[in-house]
Amino acid sequence: MTITLDNMLNGHRAAFPDAGPASLCRAPGRVNLIGEHLDYNGLPVLPMAIDRAIYLAFSPREDNLIQLRNQDRAFAPADFRNTAAIEPSQRGAWENYCKAAIVGLNAHFHPERYAGMDLYVDGDIPSGAGLSSSSALVVATTLAYLSVLGKKMEQDITRLELATLLAEAEQYVGTRGGGMDQAVILLGRRNHACMIHFFPLRVTHVPVFSDHAFVVCNSLVKAHKTGAMLERYNEGPLTCRLLRAVIEQQAREDYDDDLRIDRLADLWYGPLGLTHEEAAYLIERATPDEAVGLAWIAQRLGAPEETLRQDGFKELVEPPGGFLLRTRARHQITEHQRVEAARDCLLADDPEGFGAAMYHSHWSCAEDYRVSCPELDAMVHTAQAAGAMGARMTGAGFGGCTVNLVAPEQLGRFQETMHRQYYQNNGFPLDDIDSAFLPVRSADWADYMVQER
Question: In the predicted model, is pLDDT for residue 264 greater than 50?
Fold first, then answer.
């Protein structure tokens, strides 16, 4: 069913018959065009907000109760009290994303009264598909709570400040990501992608191609950040923290004993100001070609392994065979270069160059960073055979979607080939196939929509 203002307001009235007038806000999903697993290292990324969104109808309450209802019955009703200390629900519970927003704003504004709300949620972003439905829910809840608190966007807090705040607040749910999702959802612009730099956060809007389509294809392999999948996702940021420490040790030996590298981006944007070639040379000197265990890393850093585990790495699980530090680092260097090249291709209206960067990005994610899966790899191979100019996994990986750059005259062939060679050959049911192709257009940032009278 198409989501309309009337549907949302009627849904809210049905869920909360005693509530007062409701307001409505929306937060778009996003597709990361290129620049995967870079944001938590402070390196730039190139996503765009999309015309699929989370919609939220909300009304204030006189008490401090937060009531959540979702049009999708897969998400059970949830209630909790808004207090100075809101305990998380069990990992994977959808209400944790709403709690994250409220906890973050409470810590920032220190309100005199912890206000309650009635929230009714709907949306057309597929969950677990790597299109940031979870961060969109965080942002939508944030807009609702700001309104209930009587706070105004750009008066009481800027969009840039809010994106920075929410990137940290979302760690409440257990993920250790960066700030890309919150930034593009809050700062996206129609007909543009967002070139996002971090520390400090800043966004440049880059026009997207007017005569080529970005088509998202759902692998139908769910990539929810829960359980073992959450551990696999968090392995990337945690391994990069180990990598940062090893590279910092090498840089101190090469340049300055007092040198400090807070994140990998400091190699380029910090005091060293290295070129890509210089950064690659430093990383090659710092990291062994083979996989290493935590014991090797601890010895290299001159710290006992137990001390290292206590120093911010309690959640780190050593992968079978050890840590592939050099290949992880190689992805960071080459993906950083591809983001810059892709931005230039957009500015130069060069879809061929952009598409080539997308293919290279995918295989770097698959082979160097190891966050793809057989289904995503098969989809990229099929997309290339179907005439896509570019294709790559998008999002955290391990399932979810690919994003494909397709010339308009190739759209029919592309869809037919993907349908036959991927979906039919893998036996996916027809109702899933119908929802698997998502041509997406760039969209404007999250905002308020209407207030019921």
Answer: yes
Strand partners, 361: none
pLDDT at 423: 92
Active-site residue flag, 368: no
Task: State the residue for tokens 């036959």.
Answer: 420
In terms of phi and psi (left: phi > 0; alpha: psi -120 to 50; beta: otherwise), the region of 62 is alpha
b/e 135-169 (16+ beta carbons within 10 angstroms → b): bbbbbbbbbbbbbbbeeebeeebebbebbbbbbeb
Tokens, residue 362:
């995918």
pLDDT in the model for residue 235: 81
CB contact at 8 A, 240 and 40: yes
Q: Tally helices (H) and strands (E) across the chain.
A: 15, 12
Per-residue pLDDT at 226: 54
| C-alpha span between 279 and 285 (Å, rounded) | 10
The structure tokens listed for 273 are 């100001």
* Catalytic entry in 118, 122, 181, 266: 181
Whether 216 contacts 442, CB under 8 Å? no
Distances (CA, A) of 293 to 231, 240, 322: 18, 14, 5
Distances (CA, A) of 205 to 45, 135, 357, 411: 12, 20, 19, 26
DSSP string, 282-304: HHHHHS-SS-B-HHHHHHHHTS-
**Domain extents in the chain:** 5-208+442-451, 227-328
Q: Does domain 5-208+442-451 have CATH number 3.40.50.2000?
A: no
Whole-angstrom distance, CA of residue 331 vs CA of residue 315 = 23
Distance CA 356, CA 354 (A): 6
pLDDT for the residue 453: 39
**DSSP reduced 3-state for 45:** strand
> What pLDDT is stored for residue 410 in this prediction?
94
DSSP state string for 300-343: HHTS-HHHHHHTT-TT--PPTT-B-HHHHHHHHHHHHHHHHHHH
Q: Return d(Cα 354, Cα 346) in angstroms, integer.
A: 7
Mapped onto helix, strand or coil, the DSSP state of residue 101 is helix
pTM above 0.90, yes or no: yes
Share of the chain above pLDDT 90, in %: 79
Q: Would residue 37 be called left, alpha or beta, if left means φ above 0 and alpha means ψ between -120 and 50 degrees?
A: left
